[in-house]
Amino acid sequence: MNEQKYLPDSNRVGLLTSTVLLAFAIARIIQAPEFNLEVQLPGFLLTLPLNISTAMSLLTAGLAASGMDWLLRGHPSLQGRNTFQWWILPTLTTFVISVSLTVLPNGTAWWVGFAITGTFLFFVFLAEYIVVDPDAPFYSTSMAGLTAISYTLFFILAVALRYSDARLFLIVPGLFIAAAFASLRIMHLRLSGRWEFAWALGIAFVCVQIASGLHYWPISPIQFGLMLVGPLYALTSLAINLSEDIPVRRAALEPAVITALCWGMAVFIR
């Protein structure tokens, strides 16, 4: 019974997960015409493709945020606090999954992705609920899981955008938002509730600069993802280490090793 208070109501978390999954399924079933929003800029015509998938990606992200707030209202340790910090990862997770499901072909691959999506979402909602209370029995495990999920989501989004052959002006804002949210949430978890907005924006800026250069390289989606998640991990880890007053050489050692490992893997993986 003592552990039960640290876990969400099973009916609520089940309803929230199934509702988001239903939105994904509806977006796949409904066929609607696609149109382009054209904006004439000086010397440049900006064309934004708009369709039902784009709209549903934004709507399901909003649904996850509001659903997470609703889920947290039953937490006995919330004590009237603002719930914004626990929206970040569920919102990012839903958006990334929505984009990834869009590029998957119909058939077995899509249904496998859909099933994995449900499991992924459930554990994100569960882990975010648990980390509300630092005294929860599974707090450390949940924090480690959310950290790993944040990096995984960024990697999945980078691979999906590369696979879809999206234009650079669509890739850059998507990766910027994902990198900023992922690094911000990780640093907030690791630094005992401190908000490092400047670091998050700086990390996101560096990541999209690297992505802009890699966009024109003849590399596979997996290589593209690896060469971006390495710097994201490295810079986020460096920011955490420096914030904890670790000497610069020691603070930079692990980030450098991880970046070298990711880029080395990208050389051999096609």
Number of helices: 9
As a percent range, the share of helical residues equals over 70%
The main sheet orders its strands as 1-2
Structural class: mainly alpha
Q: What sort of overall outline do the alpha carbons produce when their principal axes are compared?
A: globular
Count of structural domains: 2
Q: What is the mean predicted local confidence, pLDDT?
A: 85
Order of helices and strands: HEEHHHHHHHH
Largest sheet, if any?
2 strands, antiparallel
Which consecutive residue ranges, at least 5 long each, have pLDDT under 50? none
End-to-end Cα distance, whole Å, is: 50 Å
DSSP strand content:
5-15%
**What is the strand tally?**
2
Calculate Rg over CA atoms. 19 Å
Question: What's this, in brief?
Answer:
The chain contains 9 helices and 2 strands, in the order αββαααααααα.
Essential attributes:
mainly alpha; 5% strand; 9 helices
Structure description:
There is one protein chain. The protein folds into two domains: 1-137, no CATH class; 154-270, no CATH class. The chain has nine helices and two strands. It has helices at 10-29, 52-72, 88-103, 108-130, 139-163, 168-190, 197-214, 221-243, 248-268; strands at residues 35-41, 44-50. Strands 1-2 form a two-stranded antiparallel sheet. A hairpin with a 2-residue loop joins strand 1 and strand 2. Helix 4 runs antiparallel to helix 5 (139-163) and helix 6 packs parallel to helix 8. The longest helix has 25 residues, at 139-163. It is globular. The model has no long low-confidence stretch (mean pLDDT 85).
